[in-house]
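Structure tokens please, single chain.
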Amino acid sequence: MAYNKFLNPMTEEQYRKEQNIQALQMRFVESGRTAPFERGVARIALTEGCNFYCKFCHNEGMSGITKQFDLKQLDTILGAYKDKIKSIKLVGGEPLLHRQFDKVVEICQKVAPTSVTTNGSMLQKWMQSLVKLEGVTVSVHSLMNERYQDIMGTSSNVEEVVAGISELIAAGVNVHINCVLTRENQDEAERIIERFAQIGVSEIKFLEILKVKEEDGDLYFPLAELTERLKKKYGEPKVAGSTKMAFPVNEKTSALLVYQYCSVGCNVCRVEGFLRIDPEPALSYCLAAEPVSIGEEASKGDVEGLKAKFELAMNGMGKPTGYTYSVKGRKRPNLVQIRQFQADNKAQEVQAGL
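Here you go.
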């Protein structure tokens, strides 16, 4: 049903979000799934730390050295949930900051097909482990180096990231690109599609910014505008849904547009079958939910206790409470401060023998 501002008290944005949520919940029912997590996707946050300061990230300001997932606990947790987990996505923070990422890959691949989402700054460091994965998703929000550094809060060079992506593709890895579309980079969308299609990326995903901070409103760019531009270039989308539209670019590559649908308390991720496992360790089905601690059970190797906590996490405990930020009111650093942060971080790692 089309939005009619004269008949609906909600704003068009609120109406679209509500329709998306209802459509997703209906898809859950129509798929025949009768319980949460039947899709079985485990998002494992290896660390909450990140070496980038992306403008739109709700965890902006976290330092590079934070708690990392203990390997023994990870092995225990995955062992307890192995019958429920069908695929694993390694996330963060920045997952490649984990000091034993190679061991993490070995543990996860014993349980289910494993992929990773990364900012791409350490592709070369972990290349031997990355080529063993089912897929690698790299976040690239601009191909213009100065703009890339500004948006992502880094001194890294985007061409070095693209070179690493090319190496992964040459090794036969299925590579996807994530790009959060904002007013600052929307003019590059077609160029990003063409560049990554040329080197053999499977999917270029454009994400509508999730407005959870006041300043996000200044960055917001409606995907509907890009949708119309791509229709003129590639025709009608091959796959259309309530939250996604896919445009075939060539035989191998597609451009996927993902509309914002997240809403605190919407329950979508739970019914869609996602579970987040944090390094505390803790369980949640929503980034905005209060996590359910499983530290004691994981430390003791209490498999039955872990299974009981899983049911609590997926069936009511850990209600959404709203998005929080690591350092309230902290200003985003400039590039000079970021370079100093990276130098300090490296010095701390050397001192700690990492």
